[in-house]
Amino acid sequence: APEGERVGELQARTIIQQCSRAKVKIKPALDGADAQWAEVGIQEGMVVYVCFFHGATEDVTHEMANSLMTTKLFRKATGCSVSVLDLPGNVLFIPQDSLLGEPVPKRRVQYKGGCEPWWGAQLLSNLVFTCRELVAGSVKCAKADVKVEQGVYGQKQEIVLNCVEPMTLLLEF
To answer: Which positions make up the signal peptide (predicted)?
Structure first.
């Protein structure tokens, strides 16, 4: 197939949002204990909203990780573009089943075609693990203490996001 063209069924959809800081609540405040947050940023990085479709395989998570971490998404002041690994930047994955939405007649949106929740959670774990491996293999990322974090699959995602220059991109796999 030509470069960038997908063969077969859609397995995953992602929206990438450049950020300077982002965090997602992973545990609510309970019995006097503070809420817990997974947090990335201070410098630059990205939030990746992700959903998996029915039929998604573990193979797609490796393709996604390589693409998300090595595609030259970030514009530098010099005019050249770099990947999140080269930046280096932090990454926060947010499971987002609303990305399954497709418009249907009468101005409604239908959410269907998602994978089973237990499998989606497994695929998200695989994706995050593979991205962490890529970060661990980068000297630049190790020096910058780059982090790859994730929200909790199947839970409401409460996020806080700061952007200096919002850059949003849709990638499908």
So the answer is: none
Nearest to 11 by CA among 69, 58, 44, 45: 58
Asked whether residue 1 is domain-assigned, the answer is no
Give dist(CA 45, CA 41) in Å, integer.
Answer: 6
Is there a domain that residue 93 lies in? yes
Give me the CATH number covering residue 107.
3.50.80.10
Q: What is the pLDDT of residues 86-101, one digit of tens each?
A: 989 999 999 998 898 8
Sorted by sequence, the CB contacts under 8 Å of residue 88 that are 6+ apart come out as 135, 138, 140, 141, 144, 146
Tell whether 153 is covered by a domain.
yes
Global pTM?
0.88
